[in-house]
Design a protein that fits this description.
The structure is a single chain. The protein is of the alpha/beta class. The chain has three domains: 5-174, Rossmann fold (3-Layer(aba) Sandwich), CATH 3.40.50; 181-424, N-(1-d-carboxylethyl)-l-norvaline Dehydrogenase, domain 2; 431-469, 6-Phosphogluconate Dehydrogenase, domain 3 (Single alpha-helices involved in coiled-coils or other helix-helix interfaces, Up-down Bundle). It has helices at residues 13-24, 36-45, 58-63, 79-88, 106-117, 131-137, 148-158, 176-204, 209-219, 227-236, 259-269, 275-288, 290-297, 311-340, 346-349, 363-373, 384-407, 412-424, 431-442; strands spanning 5-9, 28-32, 52-55, 70-73, 97-100, 122-129, 140-145, 161-162, 165-166. Strands 3-2-1-4-5-6-7 form a seven-stranded mixed sheet, sandwiched between helices. Strands 8-9 form a two-stranded antiparallel sheet. β2 (28-32), α2 and β3 form a beta-alpha-beta unit. α1 (13-24) runs parallel beside α6 (131-137) and α8 runs antiparallel to α14. It binds adenosine-2'-monophosphate. Residues 10-12, 15, 33-35, 38, 75-76, 80, 83-84 line the site of adenosine-2'-monophosphate.
Length: 471
């Protein structure tokens, strides 16, 4: 592998970090950036790294690469990828491989992979998670599409390693790599929200930021151990100039760049009830209505009861909700895999998130085991280990939600997770009534519990009720 060449286009921070990571692993990295000055200053800024080869023209960039060429794009998702492809593709040959390592929307990767395949060019839509540090020293890498055989070695070399396994594996065809990265981000939204709710409860029950940090440190020593728990404790310990906790001075209006929304839109389009991820996205939207909330805070009354909840109970609520959030992420992967015949394997996806990425967590070892023990597991909640963990947690989980409701503290993710758990384990839900209502006003028909599925019935419920289907 030493002295093999890889091309890389796009020298923003992720592209720079990935170039250095590739060079550290013995690859000569031929680089190109639309703005040539950036290429020059990057090379000048890394004099110790002799394996970086800067090019100022796309022809020279393409010419420096051996065939089949391997080219990693690290440019902005959307129009920039289109612009670079328009420039690049006419200069390539059949057999060449383009890796899109940016945050592209998965359906774009699906389309590009198909279009480029008609030219014999292999397109590998690749989710890369871990931010700047991850890209530099070992990210989680989720490649999907064509060209894995050419990219296996370099991508595996630069990926994070956990227990000797690289956090990099071929996900599946088409846009599946970017799809799985999108789900990773959806889970990340939910994971951050369940931690934020624990923080809210701990602070509302009278603990200082420092005490709350200590609680997160304790939580982080057990099955909740994760990168996000770790940085949460660190954040709570940082003081502002006046010695007060900095976190308390941050405006409580969360921003979002869209991958959480993409996940929820995808879930809605597939009819998948990924409620915790949805609540996490919507909780950010609610937080962003800061002015309206401040106004409403002076107008709308809530209970005056104090919050009574034990630290151990919050830990269990957090744990159970986090399991549901992962279960929902994998439900979506399963649904899309079925819809698009991708044959995705959760047993190969879960281990990729054990290192390098934002959602890396001890729990992913158990999730990996669950899917390795039963590759056909239809829902993570049905895994015997997780079923037991939730069973043991549920009394505390319910108490936390009840106590929060009595004290008027919102816990949307915990509540959504528990409602999902209860709904999922309920053999008969009140949807029979909804079907009756639909049949009443729109003659939409219903199926019966005492007849075969697929047989549809309509009733004239009352004089004036619908007699013929409205659509
Ligand atoms: P730049 O340095 O010339 O702006 C992240 O923005 C990366 O995507 C940068 O390397 C940026 O190049 C590149 N990029 C953004 N828009 C682009 C476009 N239309 N064509 C090529 N590269 C683009």
């Amino acid at each position: 592998m030493a002295d093999e060449r890889i091309g890389l286009i796009g020298l923003a921070v992720m592209g720079q970090s990935l170039s250095l990571n590739l060079a550290d692993h013995g690859y000569e990295v031929v680089i190109f950036n639309r703005t040539a000055e950036t290429t020059r200053s990057f090379i000048d800024g890394n004099p110790e790294q002799s394996r970086l080869i800067g090019t100022a023209e796309i022809e020279r960039f393409v010419g420096e690469l051996d065939r089949p060429r391997r080219i990693v794009l690290m440019v902005k998702a959307g129009e920039a990828v289109e612009a670079v492809l328009a420039h690049l593709v006419p200069r390539l040959d059949a057999g060449d491989v383009i890796v899109d390592g940016g945050n592209s929307f998965w359906a774009d990767s699906e389309r590009r992979s198909e279009q480029l395949a008609t030219l014999g060019i292999r397109f590998l839509g690749t989710g890369i998670s871990g931010g700047e540090q991850g890209a530099r020293f070992g990210p989680s890498i989720m490649p999907g599409g064509n060209g894995w055989e050419e990219m296996r070695e370099p991508l595996t070399a630069i990926a994070a390693k956990v227990d000797g396994e690289a956090c990099c594996d071929w996900i599946g065809p088409g846009g599946s790599g970017h799809y799985v990265k999108m789900i990773h981000n959806g889970i990340e939204y939910a994971d951050m929200q369940v931690i934020a709710e624990a923080y809210h409860l701990l602070r509302a029950s009278g603990r200082s930021a420092a005490e709350t940090a200590a609680v997160f440190r304790r939580f982080g020593e057990g099955s909740l151990s994760s990168y996000l728990m770790d940085i949460t404790a660190q954040i709570l310990e940082v003081a502002d100039d006046d010695g007060e906790p900095l976190v308390e001075k941050i405006l409580d209006a969360a921003a979002q760049k869209g991958t959480g929304r993409w996940t929820v839109e995808d879930a809605l389009s597939r009819g998948q009830p990924t409620t915790v991820i949805a609540e996490a996205v919507l909780a950010r939207s609610l937080s962003a209505l800061k002015d309206e909330r401040v106004h409403a805070a002076s107008r709308l009354r809530g209970p005056s009861a104090p919050l009574v909840v034990e630290e151990r109970e919050i830990e269990q609520a957090l744990l159970a909700s986090k399991i549901v959030c992962y279960a929902q992420g994998f439900m979506l992967i399963r649904a899309c895999s079925g819809d698009l015949s991708w044959a995705l394997q959760p047993a190969r996806i879960a281990p990729l998130w054990r290192g390098g990425c934002i959602i890396r967590a001890r729990m992913l070892n158990d999730i990996t085991s669950a899917y390795r023990n039963d590759p056909e597991l239809s829902n993570l909640l049905l895994d015997p280990h997780f079923a037991d963990v939730i069973d043991n947690a549920q009394a505390a989980w319910r108490n936390v939600i009840a106590a929060a409701a009595k004290a008027g503290i919102p816990v949307p993710a915990y509540s959504a997770a528990l409602s999902f758990y209860d709904g999922f384990r309920t053999a008969r839900l009140p949807a029979n009534l909804i079907q009756a209502q639909r049949d009443f006003f729109g003659a939409h028909t219903y199926e019966r519990v005492d007849r075969d599925r697929g047989e549809h019935f309509h009733t004239q419920w009352a004089p004036g009720a619908a007699t013929t289907p409205s659509s």
